[in-house]
Write a structure and sequence with these properties.
Mean pLDDT: 90
Number of helices: 17
Shape: globular
Strand order of the largest sheet: 3-2-1-4-5-7-6-8-11
Order of helices and strands: HHHHHHHHHEHEHEEHEHEEEEEHEHHH
Radius of gyration: 31 Å
């Protein structure tokens, strides 16, 4: 499928969502629609694996008594079903009985079957509980099919689900949908729901242009970015991963086999499930990623609490777009936490540096970290100034990138990207002031490919350009009290043209001479006419 067709599919599904959700909150409808899209993907994937597993025994045609070939095989081979499901659980890590496959669910919706809601409830529960090693446990926990938002009675809810699923099935039937296509459609819908969610969108989505910048930076060689992209990353972490779009952007840049394992963490249960679905929809096997549900600042992930240095996980790349200026309540014991004790705790009013230090702690010695933060981290005083100063003195802040305002759905403020390294070669800090380079759109400012590529190219080759980028020595930064306010080092203001006073004075004298000569000629005319002369 071409990029144009993928975009057309995304727009088709979005039009369906926009039409059907009515008065329902966009976030609520998003969860239903994305879950059904995911069920379609799981069904397609499962049926393809079943066809491969059964080979010649897979039914080639079906009659009117069944809705899927697999249902026909189940009915004809009852004695072999248990062994077949055992093999499928081992190979694809989940099992879907024929009545729960998308083909059957879509047919029930088309015929307005009164049992659709109950069948769907049983099906989603079955997938969660029958998966291998609990891979899908809780995946649909936030999909409430008994919600009054779908209707006040069972009949109303069932009718609404029939309508939604029928329209999705009709929309998908216009396109050839492989897993990549469904993944792209899923990502498109997430971005559209984010646009409609306003401030809530920051909880689960990083706009693609910004994701592209971060993923490009962390995949370049850590010590010598100019040598190009690394051939392999053992691991990448996003500790505030939202729907997982940033991690998938890194994977897209490295290729399907370019990363050993993807790690993510997300506090919001609904968004955590979105991330897991997003990974699978983009062809990431459940053995290739680990998304944890828990609080990053409290470090609730046991895997990251390992105290044995030999076993402690460290990551080649760390990317993050954590909530901006998040209020937190650090306990006294956190001041001794291994992540913070060398720097101190971020203030209660803004956990920005707490998020940064968390990610930085788990970065490998030759790794690269890129994090999106509000501009306040560059210049605020108090505890944040102390943390910033130590990071600078220890040589860990490599690059500061200022982005335009109004790029995010969740806030109109300008943000920055900080690039950190534990071992960096240059003894200066690269400042990139890209705040003025963007295109205006209806609701948001937009970074086009030329803007993105310029930022990446400037970082990669550490270029300097007037009113855009500059390498600043630590001596100069120290003279500015370790304040990293970008405009102190790279101003986008146009320099006023110098005025040559001698030239101006000569021009004035010449003008005065012309006025005197013109007046003299005019008075001659007046005298000839017998009129009073000009003084």
């Amino acid at each position: 499928m071409t990029d144009f067709e993928k975009q057309k599919l995304g727009k088709t599904l979005w039009a369906i969502a926009d039409q059907l959700r009515g008065a329902m909150n966009a976030d609520d409808f998003r969860d239903y629609m994305l879950a059904f899209l995911f069920l379609r993907y799981l069904s397609d994937n499962y049926e393809a694996a079943a066809k491969k597993e059964l080979g010649q025994d897979y039914p080639k045609q079906i009659d009117g008594s069944v809705t899927t070939p697999l249902q026909l095989w189940y009915e004809a081979n009852e004695g072999d079903v248990k062994e077949f499901e055992k093999q499928m659980r081992r190979k694809v890590h989940y099992v879907i009985e024929p009545q729960y496959l998308w083909g059957n669910i879509a047919e029930m919706a088309r015929t307005q079957d009164g049992e659709l809601l109950k069948t769907l409830q049983r099906g989603l529960g079955y997938i969660e509980t029958e998966s291998f090693a609990s891979t899908f446990r809780g995946l649909f926990s936030e999909i409430n099919l008994a919600s009054d938002k779908l209707g006040k009675t069972y009949a109303e809810r069932n009718a609404q689900l029939c309508k939604i699923i029928k329209e999705i099935a009709n929309g998908l039937s216009q396109f050839s949908t492989d897993s990549d296509t469904l993944g792209d459609a899923y990502e498109y819908l997430i971005s559209q729901f984010a646009a409609g969610s306003g401030k809530k969108a920051g909880e689960f989505y990083t706009p693609q242009p910004i994701s592209s910048i971060l993923s490009a930076i962390v995949t370049l060689d850590g010590q010598e970015p100019a040598t190009g992209q690394r051939s392999h990353l053992d691991s990448v972490l996003d500790f505030a991963c939202g729907s997982g779009s940033l991690l998938l952007n890194v994977r897209h840049r490295m290729g399907p086999h370019g990363i050993g394992k993807i790690y993510g963490q997300e506090k919001n249960i609904t968004t955590y499930n979105l991330a897991r679905m997003n990974m699978l929809l983009h062809g990431v096997k459940d053995s290739e990623f680990d998304i944890f549900h828990g609080d990053t600042l409290l470090n609730e992930w046991d895997a990251l609490r390992e105290t044995n240095p030999a076993k402690m996980p460290k990551f080649d790349a760390v990317v993050a777009n954590p909530p901006f200026s998040y209020r937190w309540e650090p306990s006294e014991s956190l001041s001794e936490d291994m992540r913070f004790k060398n720097y101190g705790l971020a203030p209660k009013s803004a956990a920005d540096f707490a998020f940064l230090l968390h990610g930085f702690y788990f970065l490998k010695q030759d790794g690269v970290m890129a994090i999106i933060l509000p501009h306040g981290v560059l210049f605020r005083g108090g505890a944040e100034a102390r943390i910033r100063t130590k990071l600078l003195k220890d040589g860990h802040i490599d690059t500061v990138i200022g982005l335009p305002a109004n790029l995010f759905f969740s806030t109109g403020i300008p943000v920055c990207i900080l690039v950190l390294k534990k071992c960096k070669k240059p003894d200066d800090v690269l400042f990139i002031n890209a705040a003025e380079e963007y295109d205006k759109a209806k609701r948001q400012n937009v970074l086009q490919s030329e803007h993105i590529n310029k930022i990446i190219d400037t970082y990669q080759y550490r270029k300097e350009e007037q009113r855009y980028s500059r390498r600043v020595s630590m001596e100069e930064i120290e003279k500015n009290d370790f304040n990293l306010n970008i405009s102190r080092y790279v101003s986008t203001a146009e320099a006023e043209e110098e005025i040559d006073l001698a030239v101006v004075h000569a021009n004035l004298l010449a003008a005065e001479q012309k006025i005197t000569e013109a007046k003299k000629r005019h008075n001659q005319y007046l005298a000839e006419l017998g009129l009073p002369l000009l003084p």
